[in-house]
Design brief:
OB fold (Dihydrolipoamide Acetyltransferase, E2P), 5-stranded mixed beta barrel, globular
Length: 128
């Protein structure tokens, strides 16, 4: 048995990028900065070291949620890791990103937005 689950929280590094596949499915791309905290051996002070993680969300929910997100928004994301590779300029490249299953707004200022989102889509036929 294999388990492929990841939970991260951090701030968006850019505004979400919404596009559509040839079949018309919405695809939202996000960048999330997640800090590691380590003690600097030279100064003895604790310092934050950012990790930049690319995330992708598919379907109608991606289209709906993209309106509520902007650079700097604090979010919690649950999903799974996906690895893919490609070739560019004769060099093989690869990366791991998070395929988003669930996203939650963490900013205090978006608390009301989150509630209004839930109210607006309570009767909608959108799979969550």
């Amino acid at each position: 048995m294999s388990i492929n689950r990841v939970v991260i929280s951090g701030n968006l590094t850019r505004d979400p990028e919404l596009r559509a596949t040839a079949a018309g499915m919405s695809v939202m791309g996000l960048g999330v900065a997640v800090n590691d905290r380590r003690k600097n051996p030279q100064t003895g002070n604790w310092e934050d070291y950012p990790n930049y993680i690319d995330c992708t969300m598919f379907g109608p929910r991606a289209d709906s949620i993209s309106r509520f997100l902007a650079k700097g928004t604090k979010v919690a994301i649950e999903g799974k890791l996906r690895w893919h590779q490609w070739e560019k300029d004769g060099q093989k490249r690869s990366k791991i990103d998070v395929i988003v299953d669930d996203i939650e707004f963490m900013n205090a200022s978006t608390e009301n937005v989150s509630e209004s989102y839930d109210d607006a889509y309570a009767d909608a036929d959108i799979p969550f």
